[in-house]
Amino acid sequence: MLEIMLWVVTPCLMIAGMTIGMVESTRIVFARARRTRDAKRVEVWLRAWWVFLPLTLLFSIMTSGMLTMMWWPGALACSLLSTIVVAATTGSPRVVVFTFVGFAPLTLTQFVFETSGPYRNARIDPLLIWLGLTACSIGFLVLAYGVGLRSWARRVFPPAVCPECGYDVRGLPHDVCPECGTEGVVAQVVQ
């Protein structure tokens, strides 16, 4: 039963999670969606994903005694890409912080893999160090890219225009853009 869980259910859940993350982050980029609602929804998904991913790896190690899913680094790479895209697009520092937090259970999982099971090893794998260095470098790159993207967006899309179509919304009596019909535009811009 555990083998069925390892080889069927867990990969399906991970692939579905990666797909949802990539689709959501791509949609946010191309729609230029900076709405708080969209940012929070994707942020909540990323938090749940960063908790689920290491637990899945830990489950596979503890039940089979070894790393059976060799495609797991691909799942990690897709998760990092989703996090980078969402953090840079929404400009949310909380996403960047949670990327750092997400590496903690990954590092712990790698440590359990090295110190238990048939591949028991007393030394600490250099992968632990590389995970920490990667987390730091990714954090700095995301912050730099996010700052550059936000400054570019401020120049291209001034604060008194609709974020969807660029219509000047200063002095509108209603909270709806007359050009594209987007609701809540007056509340989003600085008068």
What number is the mean pLDDT? 60
Shape: elongated
| Number of spatially distinct domains | 2
- What is the rounded Rg? 21 Å
The residue ranges in which pLDDT falls below 50 over 5 or more consecutive positions are none
Helix content: over 70%
What's the story with the biggest beta sheet? none
Helical stretch count? 6
How far from one another are the termini?
A: 61 Å
**Total E-strand runs:** 0
Going by helix content, strand content and strand pairing, the class is: mainly alpha
Order of helices and strands: HHHHHH
Strand content: under 5%
Task: Outline the structure in words.
With 191 residues, this protein is mainly α. It folds into two domains: 2-156, no CATH class; 160-191, no CATH class. It has helices spanning 2-31, 36-64, 72-90, 93-115, 126-156, 185-188. Helix 2 runs parallel beside helix 4 (93-115). The longest helix is centred in the C-terminal third of the chain and has 31 residues, at 126-156. The mean pLDDT is 60.
